Amino acid sequence: MQLPGLDALYDDFKAKGIDEVYCMSVNDSFVMNFWAEKHEIENVKMIPDGSGEFTRDMDMLVWKPAQNFGYRSWRYAMTLNGMEVDRMWVEDGKNQMGLDSDPYEVTKPENILKNLT
After folding, report:
1. CB of 23 within 8 A of CB of 3?
2. pLDDT tens digit string along 34-47?
3. Could you give all domains of the chain from N- to C-terminal order, each with its CATH number?
């Protein structure tokens, strides 16, 4: 839901001064490219974080044993300004047991867009 939403609102993000929109996931490039193709993503750039190194450095790497997923990224969004984090939106309930319903409210593209200044 998040990726197609970001793609659909791409021009609105650009109109708010956002240079580019990226999607990063703890997956390899094959998964990321297939995901983009399946959802017919035209504008959002895909960035694989196969090892989870970037996600770990952002303190967003979580263990999801309840889903049998292993390590994944907690859902968040951010804007950067000059390679510095300007603002972050992080879903509530971050945990290391997969004891969540994969929350998706704070990081909805519509919410991010309306909170951009």
Report:
1. yes
2. 999 999 999 999 99
3. 2-114 (3.40.30.10)
